[in-house]
Amino acid sequence: MLFDTTFFIDLERELHAGVPGAAAAFLRTVRHMPKAVSVVTIGEFAVGASEADTHRMFRGYRPVAIGHETAIFAGRLQAALPFRMGENDLWIAATALRFGLPLVSNDTGTFPHIPKLKLYRY
User: Fold this and answer.
1) pLDDT tens figures, 5-25
2) Is 69 exposed, middle or buried (0-12, 13-18, 19+ CB in 10 A)?
3) Residue 32 domain boundaries
4) Would you say the pTM of this structure is higher than 0.90?
């Protein structure tokens, strides 16, 4: 499964507050499953976190890079949608779809409207 930026922001808030919430509970339920993260998510998270905190947050997650084929897939995905997506959300959704990974996110903006994107909420 591929984890979206919203998950890590929520998890960071829970950790900072010292109160486990929905993100931590979801993580416990999938603790034995492989976990991946788009490099886009890592970059988005790093905007509001130190380098050390960013490295610590993504420890144990397999980073998924954007390559040539994913770029083409993202362009074709946007062309097929009847609405415009934000660029980072497009990269994340395309990565999940291209690799057949469900996306873990509570983002209710565009992800629920993308055909064939399996979405896990927490």
Assistant:
1) 999 999 999 999 999 999 999
2) exposed
3) 2-120
4) yes
